[in-house]
Amino acid sequence: AQSVTQLGSHVSVSEGALVLLRCNYSSSVPPYLFWYVQYPNQGLQLLLKYTSAATLVKGINGFEAEFKKSETSFHLTKPSAHMSDAAEYFCAVSLSNFGNEKLTFGTGTRLTIIP
Amino acid sequence: NAGVMQNPRHLVRRRGQEARLRCSPMKGHSHVYWYRQLPEEGLKFMVYLQKENIIDESGMPKERFSAEFPKEGPSILRIQQVVRGDSAAYFCASSPFDRQGLDTEAFFGQGTRLTVV
């Protein structure tokens, strides 16, 4: 079975500061890892995904994440926060051969940007 | 190409009534997934369907919940005799059939927020 732990249910950063959202996973086999963003009353939008290619994955809106097998981590970062980044962020893992199926989500991190 | 369409966006039901949630996948997508998001929690997988087939329903409650994805028409998540604890946001996602799967993604709808009163 797989699981995902997101450390920090709420994170606040100043506009222009580094964004770091933490995600650790547990998996018995090599996982596929995802970060999704959810704006209020909206569905989830894929930011980026790791599929066993490059360990540093670049996504949309300037976000990137690095897969570290030794630390079982897949932290999300963005060098400079923008007001529009305020949202809830979910880390997810899948063990499916197809990579999309049966995602297991973390409990989410709500990101607040301070002007 | 319209995205994943879910309706209704908001649904209010009294305890004991039935709730029907609809999901129209993106054009060309043959895989549908349903997830439930309880307040202050992440999304939990419920069921994975392909046309006319339930592939994985390991996340579905054993009673009162059912899902279908007919040959024609939207996927339906049906909750019979709703209870307060069913109040949640229900999200549908779809993806195309791709044996590799690595270059595809699951696109999510905006969800249906069910309130049981």
Low-confidence residue ranges of chain A: none
Order of helices and strands of chain A: EEEEEEEEEEE
The assembly state of the depicted protein chains is heterodimer
Output the radius of gyration of chain A.
Answer: 13 Å
Described by the principal axes of the CA atoms, the overall outline of chain B is globular
Anisotropy-based shape of chain A: globular
Number of strands of chain A: 11
Write up what this structure looks like.
The complex is a heterodimer of chains A (115) and B (117). Chain A has no helices and 11 strands. By secondary structure, chain A is mostly beta strands. The mean pLDDT of chain A is 90. In chain B, strands 2, 4, 5, 6, 9, 10 and 11 form a 7-stranded mixed sheet that branches. A 4-stranded antiparallel sheet of chain B has the order 1-3-8-7, with no helix packed on it. The mean pLDDT of chain B is 90. The interface between A and B is medium-sized, with 24 and 31 residues.
